[in-house]
Automatic annotation (TrEMBL):
<dbReference type="InterPro" id="IPR011051">
    <property type="entry name" value="RmlC_Cupin_sf"/>
</dbReference>
<protein>
    <recommendedName>
        <fullName>HutD-family protein</fullName>
    </recommendedName>
</protein>
<dbReference type="InterPro" id="IPR010282">
    <property type="entry name" value="Uncharacterised_HutD/Ves"/>
</dbReference>
<dbReference type="InterPro" id="IPR014710">
    <property type="entry name" value="RmlC-like_jellyroll"/>
</dbReference>
<dbReference type="Pfam" id="PF05962">
    <property type="entry name" value="HutD"/>
</dbReference>
């Protein structure tokens, strides 16, 4: 098992605000070229209405970290998401979001298994592969397979493991992405 601290996030602007790339795999992939297997990011959505970039051959996951969010696919009805509620959708559908928020995102190539979620205070087992744990609001204290770790606010851990990991969460306000890849 490898555990790597992610202390520097790449920040870029997009039409609806700013985004902080937490992890991209492989590490030499270029997000704009769509040549990655997965990408984990957090964004500050600063507009009341924003359009998502299309990502053919990818699946997307999103969690609003602080405010309700409405999502519409292909100009259809709205899906209302409460804060910390996960929404999964195809990357190639026309998607519009309504509402300002901070969010957490996973974009993963179709055919791979992935998930995002909120870490709870009890012990959780997370599947093998790559797991990114992001402290979005405050310093986070946790244990990974019994080993104590601290993640500072707006920092992350990347855990690569060929076996499932057990994460004990000792404080609040962290989310994770898991990609079942070895």
């Amino acid at each position: 098992m490898d555990i790597i601290s992610i202390d520097t996030l790449q920040t870029t602007s997009w039409s609806g605000g700013i985004t902080h790339q937490i992890a991209i795999y492989p590490s030499d992939a270029v997000f704009a070229h769509h040549d990655f297997i997965y990408r984990v990011s957090s964004a500050e959505v600063e507009l009341d209405e924003s359009n998502f970039t299309s990502f053919k051959k990818y699946t997307r996951y999103i969690i609003s970290l602080n405010n309700p969010l409405k999502i519409s696919h292909n100009k259809g009805g709205h899906i209302e998401l409460d804060p910390l509620q996960v929404h999964r959708f195809s990357g190639d559908v026309e998607t519009t979001a309504y509402g300002k928020c901070s969010d957490f995102n996973l974009i993963i190539q179709n055919g791979l298994l992935g998930s995002i979620g909120v870490l709870r205070h009890d012990l959780q087992e997370i599947p093998s592969g790559h797991t990114i744990i992001y402290a979005y609001d405050e310093r986070v204290y946790l244990e990974v397979n019994g080993e104590s770790r601290i993640i500072e606010k707006h920092k992350a851990l990347l855990i690569r493991s060929k076996e499932p990991i057990k994460v004990g969460f000792l404080s609040s306000r962290a989310v994770y992405a898991n990609i079942q890849i070895n």
